[in-house]
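User: quick one - fold this with arginine bound?
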Amino acid sequence: MKKTIAMLLAVLLLAMTLTACGSTKGAPLAKIQKAGKLTIATSPDFPPFESLNGDGKVEGIEIELLEKICQELGVELDIQQMDFDSVLPGVQAGKFDMGVSGISVTEKRQKNVLFTDPYCLAAQAIVVVEGSPITCKADLEGKSVSVQTGTTAESFCNENGYKVSSFQANNDAQSAVVQGKVDAWVIDDLTAADMVKAYNAENDVKLVVLDEPMTTEPYALAMAFGSEDTVKKINEILNQLLSDGTVAAIFEKYEAPFTSPKN
Ligand code: ARG
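Assistant: Sure. Structure tokens for the protein plus arginine:
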């Protein structure tokens, strides 16, 4: 009996410690307001969502979206740059308030972080060199692909029998297909369109984005557990920006087709 009680107490203590740790990693509204800024983690190699402009500043659809959100919250936007595979672990560990990086909502990620409501729908696209025998998803079966490390493209391709080469930077994943090291490059559709357009404008070898997508995925903003009140507030702001056409207008500014998550 004594042993059981002692064990129960130990379990209770452990649970309390874990909850306490968990809540300190989050970014509740009061904490953000006190700091006067919202610190976001982003991998700016993902146009039109986030990329570096000529002056080395981060710009793009998500940066404009976050500027609107920060305006509503009455705080400054603080942008921290890193590789994509550091974004979610950094948020989860409480190093940054929010991950903003064209992040697709997945069940696996939902076990580690909180997501806001989705603000758009995207898809994974297949990019090949012009003239490639691969013209649809079925042609790619069992073939080799390049992807960015830590992305849904990487996990999808690993789980579906492709030969996967992973790269920290999207540019290197692109180079792999250009150099014929892999049969195709798998990357989110709007970024594929943007990067392929820029590449084709400057090179003789042309890249082609296939019409048939691999997957469909909603994008949302990620926060650590313990940020529930901030997520709730941001959902209110996001839904307002979606319904009054602000989000669609930002996409239009970047000449990117907008697919509403509310279809
Ligand atoms: N949507 C994909 C994912 O969530 C890719 C995101 C890559 N983002 C970036 N900024 N490089 O895994």
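One thing worth noting: The longest strand covers residues 120-129.
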